[in-house]
Amino acid sequence: MKVLVIGGGGREHALVWKIAQSPLVSKVYCAPGNPGIGLIAENVSLAVDDLDGLAAFATEQSIDLTVVGPELPLSLGIVDRFEEKGLLIFGARRNAAIIEASKAFSKDLMKKYQVPTAAYDVFTEVEPAVAFIDRVGVPIVVKADGLAAGKGVIIAHTREEAVGAVMDMLSGNAFGDAGSRVVIEEFLTGEEASFLAFTDGKNIIPLASAQDHKAVFDGDTGPNTGGMGAYSPAPVVTPAIHDKVMAEVMRRTVDGMAAEGRPYRGVLYAGLMINGDQVKTLEFNARFGDPECQPLLMRMKSDIVPVLLAVARGDLSGIELEWHDMAAVCVVMASGGYPADYRKGDEIRGLEDAARMEDLFVFHAGTSRKNGRIVTSGGRVLGVTALGATVGEAIDRAYRGVAAISWDGVHYRKDIGAKALTR
């Protein structure tokens, strides 16, 4: 069968890498792809938001399954468009992808269906938002309502920071339309984890546990990014926590979405805050996390294609997932300046050396080809991902891979996976 993957980042490189291993698959295309993806699939120069172009390509090439990576095409209704044309596609329909596209919708859904989450309110004007900040106090969390590429969340530790974030979003247009409404919520303490599951709108199959590192600098300091690294499994997700999340978060959310007339099919990602035996939901994403996707797919023993097909066809019954016992760690190497303005066009050295390392794979996230060389073209450039018998071994191997690669201005966190070691 022929598969089309939509996207061009690290998550999509991991999806292409895993899908291409399936004996069911004869050819993989990726739109728009990247130079790393181009080594294992055929890149197609179509943008992720070119819904008509993508649907026409899938029709012309007789694509058997399309897999959507990023949130933007889901929020624009690519799944609805493909299904109207009789094309099989993996991902949430537009009216279900709103669970990520609007934080206000997501919070209201959680409140209605008793999914544990932080206390919150939603604002479109500055004055009432500031009054809420003064009433609740700091630290406090200010979120742009819409899609902001993982950067629309400000954890404010002072009143000045909180009011500044509100002003930037509501009147300063810092996130465009995404910030025309803000969600302000209580600050939660604990340890974050990422919980992903496949669902057909009824059946729910959890993936292995994972933990992302959102802040740009070591020790979870500095501004939020799209993710600076991830590991799996996450020891903070104990068997008891896993069962609690399945019952109180995933089951209530999937059933709630169905009750709202928005049946959710695809992969559902819950960002969690875990404190002892308490779990609260920070957010939902309507797709695989990036960079969580990279270590998760390296650990997945099962062929992913039958699962993707079952979700796209709307019936997951009888599907089971197998996982390797090994741990996996992904370290994101970023461009100088990221997550603010960052450099582009720096030549990347050492990719061939890293490629020769055992149980290690370098996923391309923000790269392009210039004069025959691989150069940086995004904020998050590479996801160096390694397997190990333990998390500690996987950390050591991943950082050996990182040490082999360089470019001017590169930066990365040096403590990815450290929380797992303390447990």
UniProtKB/TrEMBL annotation:
InterPro entries reported in the protein's UniProt record: ATP-grasp, ATP_grasp_subdomain_1, PreATP-grasp_dom_sf, PRibGlycinamid_synth_ATP-grasp, PRibGlycinamide_synth, PRibGlycinamide_synth_C-dom, PRibGlycinamide_synth_C_sf, PRibGlycinamide_synth_CS
Reported cofactor(s): Mn(2+); Mg(2+)
Name the record gives this protein: Phosphoribosylamine--glycine ligase
Organism: Geobacter sulfurreducens (strain ATCC 51573 / DSM 12127 / PCA)
Pathway noted in the entry: Purine metabolism; IMP biosynthesis via de novo pathway; N(1)-(5-phospho-D-ribosyl)glycinamide from 5-phospho-alpha-D-ribose 1-diphosphate: step 2/2
GO molecular function term, any single one: metal ion binding
Gene Ontology biological process terms, A to Z: 'de novo' IMP biosynthetic process; purine nucleobase biosynthetic process; purine nucleotide biosynthetic process
Keywords for the protein's UniProt record, in alphabetical order: ATP-binding, Ligase, Manganese, Metal-binding, Nucleotide-binding, Purine biosynthesis
Entry similarity comment: Belongs to the GARS family.
Gene, per the UniProt record: purD
Catalyses which reaction(s): 5-phospho-beta-D-ribosylamine + glycine + ATP = N(1)-(5-phospho-beta-D-ribosyl)glycinamide + ADP + phosphate + H(+)
EC number: 6.3.4.13
Positions of the ATP-grasp domain: 107-313
